[in-house]
């Protein structure tokens, strides 16, 4: 019998959206539970590491967004055709996490002047460097995807993150990275993903 899945997170895209995209792409049913901020303190102690997202598979809890993402990516046969391809998928995901880590510094900075400096650096240095790198990887691979010939979980992650971070930082220059933009359009236009994006809840992040 197919397992039952429940994904619990806040009502935002952020760490859970790549997981939601995997489910929608693979047409695997799951309960998309969105916890209201005021309900979180009561729920927090029930979570393995007191954070979300948390996946329940047949009632068994799994925490840490990228552990969940990689677990499902493997399970759904989206991890490349050999161990090296899987490792490349993970390399690209981890490189994107480095970019995300830089962006999240914006949330923690309260000084408006320092915040503006951080944003300038992100838009003028961090994103251009990373987007150029991913653009080159796609160009060199030459198949429209990051690793091998088929869509992997790395494509889902990078496709989502390039759109999400560019929108958040109002980085319209993404238009200049033609391979990356074509990749983003391809991934966000995949069956299941496209329909989900059209109907998903509108959230701030
Ligand atoms: N490394 C964790 C980080 C999870 C995390 O920090 N989640 C935040 C939401 S984005 C959270 O649960 N915050 C509420 C809290 O810490 O009480 C992951 O990737 O899942």
UniProtKB/TrEMBL annotation:
Organism expressing this protein natively: Folsomia candida (Springtail)
One record GO biological process: glutathione metabolic process
UniProt KW Transmembrane helix keyword: no
Protein name: glutathione transferase
Family according to the record: Belongs to the GST superfamily. Sigma family.
Alphabetic keyword roster: Transferase
InterPro entries the record matches: Glutathione-S-Trfase_C-like (IPR010987), Glutathione-S-Trfase_C_sf (IPR036282), Glutathione_S-Trfase (IPR040079), Glutathione_S-Trfase_N (IPR004045), GST_C (IPR004046), GST_superfamily (IPR050213), Thioredoxin-like_sf (IPR036249)
Enzyme class: transferase
Example of a GO MF term: glutathione peroxidase activity
All copies of domain GST C-terminal, residue ranges: 82-205
